[in-house]
Amino acid sequence: MSVHHEVGGALPPHAETATLEGKNKVMGFWLFLGGECVLFGMLFASFIALRNQVPDGPTGQEIFQLSIVALSTFILLTSSLTSVFGTMALHRGNLKMLNFWMIITVLLGLGFLGLEIYEFVHYVHEGHVFSKSAFATSFYTLVGFHGAHVAFGILWISLLIISSFKKGLTVVTAPKYYVAGLYWHFIDVVWVFIFTVVYLLGKVGP
């Protein structure tokens, strides 16, 4: 019988790996992230190779708005901090605070996606469409792929929060929260590289 735990001490220390199943989930997820690193590495390599292939379309130097991107970066990095607070609440066995911080994380993620959509719409109006140039195609593929990961993370965490009202916080559900937090940190780290390689270097120019 599962028990809803919301107070410190109700769960064993590091409940996410307290069982063999939990350890396997965490280990499997690290392997999954290794595969994701390879995928993003290929997209970064393609973008770097094609970033100057702009025969007749706008360049990143012409269209990138660093103020919007900087705000997006601040929002996403803040969401990484709130997910850390969520993990700390997980280790205390406090389901209420865990969900509170994860809800904040989801809201910040939605804010990031909203700004990214606004950014893409602006670029399209400037003639920077997907098929305009090799640069445009590689840009939308890389940044859009990351955005899809953010959207998936928002859905994943939201479903965990909803299911927790029925299942509570146990050694079975704790690993799910933990790996979701790892996933969120991963997409935050990837964004730091995107911000640097795509936007900062793009604004500087060739």
From TrEMBL:
Q: Name one GO cellular component term.
A: plasma membrane
Describe its membrane topology: Multi-pass membrane protein
- Keyword Transmembrane listed: yes
Q: Can you tell which superkingdom this protein's organism belongs to?
A: Bacteria
Where does the record place the Heme-copper oxidase subunit III family profile domain? 27-203
Compartment(s) of residence: Cell membrane
Check the record and name the PANTHER family matching this protein: CYTOCHROME C OXIDASE SUBUNIT 3, CYTOCHROME C OXIDASE SUBUNIT III
Name-wise, this protein is Cytochrome (Ubi)quinol oxidase subunit III
The organism of origin for this protein: Paenibacillus foliorum
